[in-house]
Amino acid sequence: MQLTPEKLGDLSPQRRERLMARSNEDISSVFDHVRGILADIRARGDQASVDWHKELKADLTPDDFRVDHAEMTKALGQTPKDLLGCLEKAAVNIRAFHAAQMERPMWQMEVAPGIIAGRKTTPLDSAGCYVPGGRAAYPSTALMTILPAVVAGVGRVVVCTPPGEGLQVNPLTLAACHIAGASEIYKLGGPWAIGAMAYGTGVVPKVAKIVGPGNKYVTAAKMQVFGVVDIDSPAGPSEALLLADRTANPRHLALDFLSQVEHDPASAAVLVTDDAQLAQAVCQRINDIYPGMPRRQIMDQGGAYCAVLVADDMDQAIEFTNDYAPEHLQIVTAEPFVTLQRIRHAGSIFMGPWAPVPVGDYASGTNHTLPTGQGAKMFSGLSVDDFLKKPTFQYLTKDGLASLRQTVTTLAEAEGLPIHAMTVRERFND
């Protein structure tokens, strides 16, 4: 990866669009394949998953998908104590941050004399958390998806995570699920996991909502079961935008930049600054240290969505940032809280020289399940709100209804719904 600064104002429409189009993974190529898998699960339940997973375990039965007490105990015993301690410390911060998001259970107000209206907050009965796995372990994602549901008061928190050879799951992932408070865990991945949680099978229960990141097959499955269950925002490869001025340290920014690129060949990293010297210093630092970086096999395939951009001034840099709407936004400016006031679109924001994105990935308490691909213009990151319903209620006295009688009956008849009007009038005929 060789980087040179680019002038933001000189970007061609095609170059700008390519940077904006990161993470917009085309799932159309797998949509029909996933549809067939989901239809099979809906029709045959657990047996469909057994047939697809026999290559991992020859004598597989539906009950093998469930993580039992013995397997969890073994996983906890296999996990080094220092790692368990780190998971527990991260869980404490994540739990505390999400607990602070909880609203009062109910509120009401007198809209007008005789008319009381309000809203109550109730948790979902059940939720499904998808934790990626297979060739890698993502215990942090277990904490980030399970804990908000538990804090919200969801009665049944179901986890699905892909198994490897022998239908084994990384012990660290299971330990994280245990620490977070999952109700039950199943060794299923991809569309089979999403379909099982959406429709319910003999072993895996149906849930009300499915959350968590995944590859394009998982994304396609979640989009197709939406309506049968609720889902969180779509998410693609990781991305970060670094918004910096002359006060930033180029050595730190270089590693912040590369830390995003190491995720995936399709990951995106963009630095925007109003300081040309800083941009040049960051590019030089990246070019110098890149040959010795780990995970080169991934980074060598990437870079298509990476750029170091020089803006005319901070106004132009912030305008671009809001249009980009990054999943992760690092603000490294002289007055980050002042800059923050001008940010409209971002999934999670990291401010100052001591707040690199990895602290939010793991342990500062904020959630790392975030919208990508400009999704931050429409969605927020995962929170307790994703697991709460907020029905409204109203109570009217006779005088309260009388004050709305003419308004309701007139509007109902204007919409061609005469019985709506009759139900109000009838109450005054008694």
TrEMBL record:
Its EC number is 1.1.1.23. One of its GO terms (molecular function) is NAD binding. It is an enzyme of class 1 (oxidoreductase). The active site is at E327 (proton acceptor), H328 (proton acceptor). Pathway: Amino-acid biosynthesis; L-histidine biosynthesis; L-histidine from 5-phospho-alpha-D-ribose 1-diphosphate: step 9/9. Substrate binds at S238, Q260, H263, H328, D361, E415, H420. One of its GO terms (biological process) is L-histidine biosynthetic process. Binds 1 zinc ion per subunit. Signal peptide: none annotated. Keywords: Amino-acid biosynthesis, Histidine biosynthesis, Metal-binding, NAD, Oxidoreductase, Zinc. PROSITE patterns: HISOL_DEHYDROGENASE. InterPro entries: Ald_DH/histidinol_DH, Histidinol_DH_CS, Histidinol_DH_monofunct, Hstdl_DH. GO terms for cellular component: cytoplasm. Transmembrane segments: none annotated. It catalyses: L-histidinol + 2 NAD(+) + H2O = L-histidine + 2 NADH + 3 H(+). Zn(2+) binds at Q260, H263, D361, H420. Its cofactor is Zn(2+). It comes from the Bacteria. PANTHER family: HISTIDINE BIOSYNTHESIS TRIFUNCTIONAL PROTEIN, HISTIDINOL DEHYDROGENASE HDH. NCBIfam families: hisD. Catalyzes the sequential NAD-dependent oxidations of L-histidinol to L-histidinaldehyde and then to L-histidine. Belongs to the histidinol dehydrogenase family. This is Histidinol dehydrogenase.
